[in-house]
Amino acid sequence: MTPTEGDVALACVSVLVEELVSCGLTDACVSPGSRSTPLALALRRNRDVRVHVHLDERASAFFALGLAKASGRPVALACTSGTAAAEYLPAIVEASLTRVPLLVLTADRPAELRNVGANQTIDQPGIYGRYVRSSVEAEVPGDRPEGAYWRGLATNSWWQAVAHPPQPVHVNLPFREPLVPSGEPVALGVLGPSRADLHAAPTHPTPEDALALAEVVGTHERGVIVAGSLREAAPHVLDLSRAAAWPLLAEPTSGLRLPGALAAPTVLLADERFASAHTPDAILQLGAAPTSRAGLALVAAAERLMIVDPDDLVADPHRRAESRMVVGADPLAASVAGRLEPRDTTAWHRAWLDADRAARRVVDELLDGWDEPSEGRVARDLSAALPSDATLVVGASMPIRDLDLFMAPREGLRVLGNRGASGIDGFVSTILGVSAAGGPTVGLLGDLTLLHDVGSLLWSARRGFDAVLVVPNNGGGTIFSFMPQRELPELEELFTTPHGIDLGSVCAAAGAGHERVEHSSDLVPAVKRAVGAGGVRLVEVAVDAELNRRRHAELAATVASALRG
Fold first, then answer.
1. DSSP character for 480?
2. What is the model's pLDDT at position 106?
3. Cα four-point dihedral sign 384, 395, 315, 325
4. What is the β-pairing status of strands 102-108 and 169-174?
5. Strand stretches in 204-265, DSSP E
6. Which of 17, 65, 70, 434 is deepest in the core (most CB within 10 A)?
7. 304: part of which helix (H) or strand (E)?
């Protein structure tokens, strides 16, 4: 018998998958669909690919995002044609802005079925715009059955994804019917050489980069280092901070909220009197722009701003940088620290350290005295209690801000978040994707963030994942109580959107574990029980939204008083 279009398609796409595996592919996320049959079969029948099946393409893409972010390796996405491909866009945007490699493989109708009213057909080539590094329209397998073409398509796509900085890539794969193979063998000819041994070139600082930065640091005593989100560890930044006697203000997602960094940097900056009296002459910003408004204001007010931007994020929203170096933060910090004559502790440095100790003491005393749960104490206690091999995945809106305010420096904890576009969508899926990379995984997310992606919880809770979701339930989007919208008469209707949903019932429907915490001291034991029990479990923390807002105000007033004293 003559091989069908389905036989040829499966054979060609199998070569593509085999070459991706040779390059390093280990995981693929697949959603059900007819047009993607050859692609789904090729992935599932390759024993070296772990396939994760998701009903919802949006959830699938955010799962892949979390897995790729945690593992550092590209993850493949495979879906059918039409709006299924469009569902990937939010996660691709986030991946693009946080430099996460994804291989987006979308099945499609062949060109002769486009723009003629064919069912489930949209204009897929280029659908993701500038949020992918490259978008390739593959040949129809029946028109291009040479194995060398499909091997080359795989290697080119892989190295486009992992080239510095990593990015998503899109391969649109049109297939003709019949889509289900008959089982007839297909000869694809000579495959040609594999290019799986190529390596992405890292970006190293030049001696000129290090010399220029060392000169600025060496001539300014009144400086600070601000570390935003970083994709790769940079422990030598602590050496640079010590050598320069510049305080290190590190966000949790920088990986540098470690002993030696300030213990309450965002609390200090939130005090306007302290911040205005301690405006640096020079700032070295590493990675992404700061999360908090106070951090952004500090950077905007600096007389001299140098940005080390290893992932080419262009992290300068106020357009104040006098220089921006697209180099690795860790090797640059090591080189600059080695060129400096170490400073003794200066009056500038002592002022920051003394204020930081006072602010940290006030924060801890206040939080320890609050038995009724507050979001700030949840963030502090959770980040302190997790084991050193754990990953804390922190959601947008209030959780990332509370963690930035209240997390104390510690070793060992990895903190991840979707801070590129800062959306709340797909976040349960992201947590589950991180958990698939291995190791204890705990998510800190708001109740609306949970509900926004509740479909992922319903689909995945019984599928063998281990993840704990810690959810302060304040009944809606209380971040708007801290924003100018709080003065609007439509605040509740349009912004805080109280939901009134029983999260325990949601967990029961999903088959997820659930425990509700109503006292601050009960949080850590509940989380430890959840981690020990395994599976997907939700620890719900009952939070009074108005009391939480008042406690933020109390904290600000008490810190201000301590700093004056």
1. G
2. 98
3. positive
4. parallel
5. 223-227, 248-250
6. 65
7. strand 304-308
Residue 400's pLDDT band, with cuts at 50, 70 and 90, is: very high
The residue type of 185 is P
Handedness of CA 405, 407, 408, 414 (dihedral sign): negative
> What is the identity of the amino acid at 529?
R
438-466: average pLDDT: 95
Place of tokens 């008959």: 182
Residue with tokens 């810690």: 470
Residue partners of 500: CB distance under 8 A and separation at least 6: 475
Q: Is 87 left (phi over 0), alpha (psi -120 to 50) or beta?
A: alpha
Give Cβ neighbours of residue 446 (< 8 Å, ≥ 6 apart): 395, 397, 398, 399, 424, 471, 472, 474, 477
Q: Round to whole Å and give the CA distance between 75 and 428.
A: 18
Helix, strand, coil in percent for the chain, rounding step 5: 45, 15, 40
Distance CA 366, CA 371 (A): 10
- Give the C-alpha separation, 179 to 7, whole Å: 8
Q: Are 516 and 540 in contact (CB under 8 A)?
A: yes
pLDDT of residue 182: 93
Residue 202 clears pLDDT 60, i.e. is over it: no
Q: Closest Cα to residue 390, out of 539, 526, 531?
A: 531
Q: What span, in angstroms and rounded, lies between the C-alpha atoms of 70 and 253? A: 13
Whole-angstrom distance, CA of residue 416 vs CA of residue 469? 14
- Exposed, middle or buried, 482 (CB in 10 Å: 0-12/13-18/19+)? middle
Pull the structure tokens for residue 67: 């897995």
Distances from the Cα of 142 to the Cα of 135, 145, 150, 155, 236, angstroms: 21, 6, 12, 21, 54
Is 414 in contact with 437 (CB distance < 8 Å)? no
Element (H, E) at 171: strand 169-174
Helix residue ranges per DSSP H, 2-101: 5-23, 37-44, 57-71, 83-86, 89-97
What CA–CA distance (Å, rounded) separates 355 from 562? Answer: 9
Helical ranges in 437-489 per DSSP H: 447-452, 454-460
Over the Cα atoms of the chain, what is R_g?
Answer: 25
Query: Can you tell me the mean pLDDT for 127-148?
Result: 94
| Residue 462 neighbours by CB distance under 10 Å | 12
- Interval 23-55: pLDDT, tens: 999 999 999 999 999 999 999 999 999 999 999
Contact between 191 and 54 under an 8 Å Cβ cutoff? The reply is no
- What lies within 8 Å, CB to CB, of 324 at 6+ separation is 306, 307, 309, 314, 316
Q: Is the pLDDT of residue 115 over 90?
A: no
- Taken in order of first residue, the domains within the chain and their CATH numbers are 5-174 (3.40.50.970), 207-345 (3.40.50.1220), 369-564 (3.40.50.970)
Q: Quick one: what percent of the chain has pLDDT higher than 70?
A: 97
Residues 6+ apart with CB under 8 A from 45: 14
Report residue 550's pLDDT band, with 50, 70 and 90 as the boundaries: confident
List CB contacts of 114: < 8 A, sequence separation 6 or more.
121, 123
